[in-house]
Amino acid sequence: MSEDLLRSVDGGVLTVTINRPQRMNAFGVGASRELAGVINDADADPDVRVVVITGEGKAFCTGADLAGEPASPQEAMDAVNSYIRAIAAASIPVIAKVNGPCAGMAVGLALASDLIFMADTAYFLLPFVGIGLIPDAGTSALVPGVVGRTRAMGMALLGNRVYGPEALASGMVTAVLPAQALDDAVAAAATQLAHGPKDAIAQTKRAINATTLAQLEDALDRETAVQVDLLQSDDYREGVAAMLGKRRPEFAR
């Protein structure tokens, strides 16, 4: 495993920590593929009963590292989709421990998880339109699926941040806690699941996902088809340049 992802196992619980605090845990294609592989391997490992995903330092994950490794648009989308599919398909439960800002593709990472514990100071953000893109990582289905169309449009079109208390009230997360209580709450839930009936837990996840994630595959395919084109557009190049230069973008259209 690369240094971008830290892995530890204790009592049947695999904790995967996104370890790029210098980039607010934004990561690229290599780490995306690696994360998918870690989840798939954990699901096949009889000694792992639960996966917890979190971030090192102040952030959970702020999405794709736009200044990082180069990749083709198709490669980038396939890599992101791989970990969303891995989480949804895994028979073991996946817990997102959202310890700080969660933006872009990381919102899909969190919402695809089975349980989401969030610090009260953390927030969700869909910044895609601001750089000339559409929401991806399944968020075009996952976000409206939990908050409804109107709130989802506010997040997607206006970039509205959703902080912990609002996320809890709108059904986006399992629990919201003070940052200092987050570790203990996640550990308690993970331990309960690790000692629970494995088959019943797996079938419960499968049954609920069958009804609530029915649109996810179509969303991933649709997002990919559109995003591959947008990632090659002048508006995207301008959006990224403006963001990295900390200025207002001037879109062509």
Automatic annotation (TrEMBL):
InterPro entries in the record: ClpP/crotonase-like_dom_sf, Enoyl-CoA_hydra/iso, Enoyl-CoA_hydra_C
Keywords: Isomerase
Keyword field contains Isomerase: yes
Stored SUPFAM superfamilies: ClpP/crotonase
Gene Ontology molecular-function annotations: isomerase activity
Assigned protein family: Belongs to the enoyl-CoA hydratase/isomerase family.
Name of the protein in its database record: Enoyl-CoA hydratase/isomerase
Organism annotation: Tsukamurella paurometabola (strain ATCC 8368 / DSM 20162 / CCUG 35730 / CIP 100753 / JCM 10117 / KCTC 9821 / NBRC 16120 / NCIMB 702349 / NCTC 13040)
